[in-house]
Amino acid sequence: MDTVFGLDANTFGRLQFAFTISFHIIFPAFTIGLSAFIATLELAWLRTGREHLHRLARFWTKVFAVSFAMGVVSGITMSYQFGTNWSRFSEVVGNVIGPLIGDEVLTAFFLEATFLGVMLFGWNRVPRGLHAASSVMVAIGTAISAFWILSANSWMHTPAGHVMRDGIAYPVDWSEIIFNPSFPYRLSHMLTACYITTALVVLSVGARYWVAGRFKTEASLMVRMGLAALLVLAPLQLVIGDLHGLNTAKHQPAKLAAIEGHWDGSKPADLLLFAIPDAAAERNRYEVGIPRGASLLIKKDPDALFPGLKDFPREDRPAVGRVFWSFRIMVGIGMVLIGAALLGGWLWWRGRLFESHRYLSTVAWGWPLGFIAILAGWLVTETGRQPWVAHGILRTVDAGSPVSAAAVATSLTLFVLVYGVVFSIGILYIRRMLRRGPQGAATAVPDGVPSRPLSAAEDAAREASGAPA
Amino acid sequence: MNLFELAPAGASSLELTLPVIWALIIGLAVALYVIMDGFDLGIGILFPFLREEAERDLMMNSVAPFWDGNETWLVLGGAGLWVAFPQAFAIIMPALYLPIIVMLLALVFRGVAFEFRWVAKPSHRIWDVAFAGGSTIAAFSQGLALGGLLQGIRVQDGKFAGGMLDFLTPFAVLCGLALVVGYALLGATWLMLRTHGPVEVHARRLAMPLLVGLLVAIAAVSVWTPIAFSRIAERWFRVPDFYWLSQVPLLTLLLAWSCRRGILHGRGLQAFASAVGLFLLAYAGLVLSNLPYLVPPSVTVWDAAAYPASQLFLLIGVCLLLPVILGYTVFIYWTFRGRLQHGEGYH
Asked: Distance between CA atoms of A358 and B34, rounded to whole angstroms?
């Protein structure tokens, strides 16, 4: 068998895909929300003329540029990886999913990539209204991207609108394909997650500045906007997540069983807060949970039954431990965010928000939580879909390309090195810009000249790095 | 030459024409990619030749608003290949695995360099290297992939059946070098068109040897391919096809002369337009050599075609959206028109 260190091409391919997509998802998770935030700031500035809105928009656009660039280059990798490492998958589902990805490129990718040019570089070149419109186009483009990608991905979980012939999927009804059973839930879940993630970053950054006594006007605005968004979205996400779970129960029962750590389908399921699943023994150890709580949550009846993992042949079960724990991390973070939002909301209502240094300095540390929750959530859904790459149609182990284990081991190593170095540096640069804040050349007001002198950019950079003038 | 003689017998008219239309669309997407990302990769390839920070700033600024949109045509080409010809996609991608992976990684460096370089100042030297290295390696890998495709891919039962290093031949290396030189010429003539001052002067000086280099490479490939691949010799030298196919080398000479004049007289538009013309002709030549094979030597556009309903669904999208995309692409080039003076930029 063709292996390197005992791992075959398929396993390396899975590791590579998981690695590259995990890095990739961090950036759209941020830019989808951030583009909406920037567009909102710009529109508000157009309406009110308040200069700090303009300054904030320019500042966050600089952060956006760095994040977006990383999202683009890591995204191109994904589209080619379908072919390089998953050619059998490409063949089997290509007739159905191919057009969805194609439509993503046509309707979203080009839109955001092109108007990004105006958004980043057109501050002094185009009228304000056109610039704001471009920022709106970018925000819309990122959301449309999410639409198509989630549609294609959801089809892999809940295939519909197709027919199988000789092991190849053929489209029958496009609206059933695009709006497949899990799509509305997964799209709303992910978009909400993106907006929550960005809201939390904005809130965090604002809180940090406020506590340090810097940029008071901007900080106050960011704290209020971020908190307001969280107050609406965090509880909403709980509802969406619940509905998503019910949909999963209907269409992907094995995944749901893994999420709940539910082995024995002949008894009602407990809502497990803690457990160590033991796949070999087909049971959990050290269970701590609410008796019959899962049955209540999923079936609305504490005595109701639903399939447990033992109701599926071993080869059809996902990796329980990973799914179980990723889910709890995600929900745990979600609960923390709801709590933080409610507390902040109450303080705000009492007029004590901006005196509550304890609250604000705690929240200032919270910016990574959205990203962690998103990664955990994707682990749940994608690992939970295993052993299928397209549920009921094609198994992951049969979906790979005719490439050697050595080639994939090499590419995996290269990806880990390159992504690890480049994206870590990028994140450091973003942190540096955030620490520096919305001041100086980073937010310089246009002086009416068609193009700004290069030296302004250099000054900004020298300031930011603390180098002597 | 009747390309349709290779089409499957008994195919419906939709099954006959959709694959050809899609081949043209993908061909267009790839051509647009090669021209548009060609000049911004070319800028990176030329970085080592212009050593002043201010000059490099200017070079990057001349393409900064466009690079992302330009690179998107690469995704459309790849995604389009998947949608329209999934079997070809499933063969070509694994067959050209290593050059494609290397290209993707090089594009990572090139892409982030656009933003990181500004943020990192004054410690930006490393991103200069990333930009130049990423651009050059991306161009070279694309050439390797092209060569690997042209020389044919081993297919068995409709799947790739060769080895991971099949692509790596002297011919593929020649294609790699040709593309590096070609993109550099596009970059140089773009700078002639878009800048004033020292950068324009440098670009003019670099453009001539690059033009010569590209012509040598085109000649080499044009001589090599019919000698090495009998199917290509048959295609070109069959009378009477030869008479109208020979327009291609003749037009090449004409465009080369026009490019030379543009460079010598400092006429940026003429130089750039002729360089683009040269690229398109070389591209047309390669297409003519291989049509209707999508995966030389055995898989035609009809063999690899997706289910007609899928091709049709996306074709409708393309017909609606391509004009819109081209429209706002023109808009952005128009918005950022004009020459950049030394010291000007957008950041």
From this structure: 56
Q: Closest approach of chain A CAs to the CA of B230, in angstroms?
A: 28
- Going from the C-alpha of A330 to that of each of A192, A298, A356, A368, B166, the distances in angstroms are 14, 18, 27, 12, 45
Count contacts between A and B (CB, < 8 Å): 267
Tell me the pLDDT band of B180, cut-offs 50, 70 and 90: very high
pLDDT at A455: 40
CA distance B246 to A135: 49
- Output the CA torsion B141→B144→B149→B152 (10° steps): -150
- Is the model's pLDDT at B307 over the cut of 90? no
Rounded Cα distance, B339 and A303, in Å: 75
**What's the N-to-C CA distance of chain A in angstroms?**
62
> Quick check: helix, strand or coil at residue A283?
strand
pLDDT of residue A457: 47
The label of the residue with tokens 């990176």 reads B44
Are B289 and B225 in contact by the 8 Å Cβ rule? The answer is yes
For residue B240, cis peptide bond before it (omega within 30 degrees of 0): yes
Helix (H) or strand (E) holding A70: helix A51-84
Within an 8 Å CB–CB cutoff, is residue A72 touching chain B? Answer: yes
- A415 vs B41: CA distance, rounded Å: 21
Instruction: Please give the angle made by the CA atoms of B103, B104 and B108, to the nearest 5 degrees.
Output: 115
C-alpha–C-alpha distance, residues B100 and B93, integer Å: 8
Which residues from chain A sit within 8 angstroms of residue B335, using beta carbons? 117-118, 122, 125-126
For residue A456, pLDDT over 70 is answered with: no
How far is Cα A140 from Cα A146, in angstroms, rounded to an integer?
10
Residue pointed to by tokens 């570089």: A121
Give the pTM: 0.89
